[in-house]
Amino acid sequence: MAHTPTSRQATDKHDGATTAIADNQPNAVELAMFHRLSKIIDPELGRSITDLGMITAIQATPRDAHPSTFDVTVHVELTVAGCPLSKTITSQINSAVESYPEATLIPHIEVSAMSQDKLADLVAQLKAERRQNPFTKPGVHTRIFAIASGKGGVGKSSVTANLAATFAALGYDTAAIDADIYGFSLPRLFGVHTQPTNLNGMLMPVVSWGVKLMSIGMFAGSERAILWRGPRLQRSLEQFLSDVWWGSPDVLLLDMAPGTGDMAISVAQTLPNAELVVVTTPQPSASEIAVRSGLVALQVPMKVRGVVENMSYFEHKDERLEIFGHGGGKRVSEQLTHALGYDVPLLAQLPLEPEIREIDDSGRPAVLDPSGKLADTPLAAQFTTLAQSLISSAQ
Ligand SMILES: Nc1ncnc2c1ncn2[C@@H]1O[C@H](COP(=O)(O)OP(=O)(O)OP(=O)(O)O)[C@@H](O)[C@H]1O
Ligand SMILES: [Mg+2]
């Protein structure tokens, strides 16, 4: 007898668990299977596959010669045909069926795609559950760090990528956005060559090295890229946030465009909880303009969480060569502390490390080893300290 979740859910509402069927009858097996499958979470939407309506039928047929052996056919409707994560889901269904302790079950999984109407309903339901910008909801716990600088090329994107990879490797649910909608770096730094899955207009971030990523660079040349780069920066950022299914990350990092004004103001208006992290290099020319990028916090209610000095020194034969001079990070920290009236600490001094550039270009953040764990290097240790001081700082 085929078990369709809709009819079963309706029945359950009426007679609860009183379904009087002896153990290991096909019906009981189907019911038990439905229950087991409800534990499987869709990796993109973060919801149970049964809640999402992805299991449309379960059918258990006893094998004549073996009273406690059943062929179990599970019909799965994926949200998107050929969805890249379908293998993960089907293999989890397979193991849920095979590991049933009460009987021997032989799984047969029939995969198809949801109809356009059903998908539209599902997306509408999911969208209704959140506001436009999921990060401004009351009770949302996401720490948002905007990685900014005055001057270009000081290493914001490298710091964002390595910091995001560190947070993810430490077990935080981590997201990162290329907030620089005219120039973008994250797809290259994370080795992403795919486009986000599009569920009727709602986008799933691409997950790479454990980080949920979104970048306009993933849509190069497409209509969405043009739509998102609309006339106003703030509107673009809002759309960027609300068109994407983010779940509820612990940390969201924004890789900003260089500059001292517009972008930070847009971020502060769109994400009032965002905190600024100013990146500078040691030389005076970079640090002067870095101070100005932090002073934006005088105009908008945004905290400057701290300063990161990048390319501070080059370690050569146990000697630290200060190729780009000295003291930029400290100067920025002192001047912002003075101007803003609260402590803006120098959080890290990161070395000039050719590996950062080489590994970044190969699509793996330098703090990770090839297996995706934090590498056993001084650099990874420095990023771990930086991540911990950011997340443990008072908001
Ligand atoms: N600590 C470092 N050691 C060596 N190379 C680095 C380091 N930090 C960044 N780089 C390299 O410097 C270049 C500029 O870095 P990055 O793109 O991260 O800067 P950015 O501030 O994001 O630039 P933009 O302002 O253009 O967005 C890149 O080639 C990067 O690989
Ligand atoms: Mg950059």
Automatic annotation (TrEMBL):
SUPFAM superfamilies: Fe-S cluster assembly (FSCA) domain-like, P-loop containing nucleoside triphosphate hydrolases
Keyword Glycosyltransferase on entry: no
Top-rank taxon, per record: Bacteria
Binding site for ATP: 150-157
Subunit organization: Homodimer.
Keywords: ATP-binding, Hydrolase, Iron, Iron-sulfur, Metal-binding, Nucleotide-binding
Taxonomic source organism: Bifidobacterium boum
Lineage: Bacteria, Bacillati, Actinomycetota, Actinomycetes, Bifidobacteriales
CDD domains: Mrp_NBP35
Pfam families: FeS_assembly_P (PF01883), ParA (PF10609)
Function: Binds and transfers iron-sulfur (Fe-S) clusters to target apoproteins. Can hydrolyze ATP.
Protein's UniProt name: Iron-sulfur cluster carrier protein
GO biological process terms, semicolon-separated: iron-sulfur cluster assembly
Gene Ontology MF term list: 4 iron, 4 sulfur cluster binding; ATP binding; ATP hydrolysis activity; ATP-dependent FeS chaperone activity; metal ion binding
Coiled coil, from the record: none
PANTHER family, per the entry: IRON-SULFUR PROTEIN NUBPL
Family, as annotated: Belongs to the Mrp/NBP35 ATP-binding proteins family.
Domain MIP18 family-like residues, every copy: 36-102
